[in-house]
Amino acid sequence: MRRTSWLAAGAGAVVLVGGVIAAVLLSGDDDEAPAPRARQYSAHSACLLTDEHGVTGSEAAPVWAGMEDASLATKAKVMNLPVFGPDTTANAVPYVNTLVQRHCDVVIAVGGTPVAATRDVAGRTPKTRFAVVGEGDTKGNLTVIPQAEGVRAAVARVVKDAVEDDGGVTD
C-alpha cells in the first residue's frame, strides 16, 4: 500500500511540474515587446480655445471631435483650454497667447469671445496658424471654418493640413 502511495504522489508531482513548464512555454515569447499602454504622439499639436463650458459645450463638441479624428489619423496631440473669467476679448487674449507660446501647429477657437480674441492675436502673430469657427473670410494665417453640419470634418482637415505642412506660416 505504501508503494502505491509513493507512486501516486510521484505521478502527481510529475503532472504538476509538467503543467508549470507548459504554462511557462505557452505564455509567449519574451522577445516580444508589450503593447504600449499610452498613445505615441508625434511632435505636432493642435490647440482649441473654448468658452467656460469647454469641449462639452454645444458649439465646441463637434470641433473637439474633429480634432480627435485628426489626432487619430496623424498622431498629433490635441489639447484644449477654456477661457474663464469675464466674457471679454481682453480677458481671452492671454489664453490665446498661452496657446501660441505652447507652439501649437494650429490654434482653433470656437465661441464668440474666444473667436474674437483669436482674430485679434492672429493679426499680430503672422507666424502662427489660426482657425476660427464662425463667419468671415479666410486670409493670411487665419482660416475660417463655417459653423455648419460638416464642421467636424472641416476641423479635422484643418488640423491634418497644419500637421502635414509642419505647422507655422511663412512670411
What brief labels describe this structure?
single chain; 171 residues; alpha/beta; 5 helices; globular
Describe this structure in words.
With 171 residues, the chain is α/β, with parallel strands linked by helices. The protein has helices at residues 2-26, 60-74, 89-101, 112-124, 151-164, and strands spanning 45-50, 77-82, 106-110, 130-133, 142-145. It has a 5-stranded parallel β-sheet, sandwiched between helices. Helix 2 links the parallel strand 1 and strand 2 (77-82). The chain starts with a helix and ends in a 7-residue tail after the last helix.
Secondary-structure map:
Elements: H1 2-26, E1 45-50, H2 60-74, E2 77-82, H3 89-101, E3 106-110, H4 112-124, E4 130-133, E5 142-145, H5 151-164
Helix pairs in contact: 2-5, 3-4
Q: Would you kindly provide a brief summary of this structure?
A:
The chain is globular. It is built from five helices and five strands, in the order H-E-H-E-H-E-H-E-E-H. It has helices spanning 2-26, 60-74, 89-101, 112-124, 151-164; strands at 45-50, 77-82, 106-110, 130-133, 142-145.
The stretches of 5 or more residues where confidence is low (pLDDT under 50) are none
Amount of helix: 40-55%
- Estimate the global geometry from the Cα principal axes: globular
Main sheet overview: 5 strands, parallel
Q: How large a portion of the residues is in β-strands, by DSSP E?
A: 5-15%
H/E element order: HEHEHEHEEH
SS-based structural class? alpha/beta
What is the overall number of helices? 5
Q: For the residues shown, what is the average pLDDT? A: 84
